[in-house]
Amino acid sequence: MLSSLSITEAHEQLKKKQISSRELVQSCIDRIESIDKSLNAVIFRNFERALAEAKKIDDQGVSDHPLSGIPYLAKDIFCEAGIPTSACSNILRTKDYKPPFDSTTTARLKAAGAMSIGKTNTDEFTMGASTETSCYGPTRNPWDITRVAGGSSGGSAAGVAADECLFALGTDTGGSIRQPAGFCNVTGLRTTYGRTSRYGVMSMASSLDTIGPIAKNIEDLAIILQTIAGKDPLDGTTGDIPVPDYRASLKKDMKGMRVGIPKEYFIEGMNAEVEEAVRSAAKVFQNLGATLHDISLPHTKYATPCYYVLCPSEVSSNMARYDGIRFGHQIENPKDLLDHYIRVRSEGFGSEVKRRIMIGTYALSAGYYDAYYRQAQRVRTLILQDCTEAFQKVDVIIAPVSPTPAFKVGAHEGDPVAMYLEDIFLDPQVMAGIPALSLPGGFSRPQAGVPALPIGLQIMGAQWGEEIVLHAGYAYEQATEWHKKKPRL
To answer: What positions carry a catalytic annotation?
Structure first.
């Protein structure tokens, strides 16, 4: 099955003309059509255009770029000219919104010769930790379809894990690349804030959102990041920082690398098998020549409360544009302007979006701004200082991705606080703006009625430190076999 190839493997076969780009795209299409009904990972299919683009590449001859002729899936918040983009929300779905422009990320991939074959499911406007708030229904985990794929990039992670594409695009605001990657046994990278452009990607929280890839292995991540990273004149938050050759640095020696193990990430109530997997990973790094160091990140426990003040505050602002006048769902015969706004947003938004808008509006309101929003920004600074000090002592930090493997669909229904706590190991990196990698780190033991489930390992680095994070991840990946395991579908 050609869709099971990695980017590197497919590129070699394309260069040698052992396969064509059209055959590669068709293999992904066939895979989606045969299994996606049980996963619900792909919510829009762009097959005809992708096949036409693949034929052009085949006719022209595949270029030397490793992404030339490679099919991928994009999370349903990436704008592509003429392609329906709904953020999995009825407020745009009912309007059949088709952007007139491409996001910077998809434009850069297109220039390299990669082809988008469809849009993946996501929590509505990326608000969630399980891809259950989507207006298209939940995405299910390829390892056990009774469980979530994670969120909000659950569709992208499930699509990569199930070989429906060779890679996918996701976004990470509060762990939305790393958690689904961990749940689905694939690799995903949250980049340093400002490393990749947010232009043309629908915003949830503008000071927290980052763009990143989900792929089958670390080398593929390096290839994708090399293509999409860098300064963008259309996004003033991108840093004017040189982009290293990520792929070239993967195979450096690990000897002497300092690996930090933060005590705050091993908490009461954490699944014992998750802790065992991370401790075992530390031993792998030690055997590779790294040195282990116990460290403390004392403000870690405040990261999730801080996140759930700052994120909804920005949501409150960013969702204001979806009013049925500028963008979004429209209604008939409103009584007046107030009735128009109430009906548009009540009918168009789901419960989680409404909840965050209300929380954020409250936190920003007169009399509460200083008590909540301003205080959260101060705590955010303290978390950044923790990380800055830690990375003076160590090169990377390892930790779990999630305190448990993937949970059942509906397990947190009616309990949003329990769902928010799924991000407990994923929010500190957001507050600090640092890069963090999720990669396969083991499996839980199968039990009666419960199959073995993936466990994700998280590797963090200092700001702009994607190069060393990928290097550490590659060394671990080469020393283990977890990333080679595939779900049976």
So the answer is: 75, 152, 176
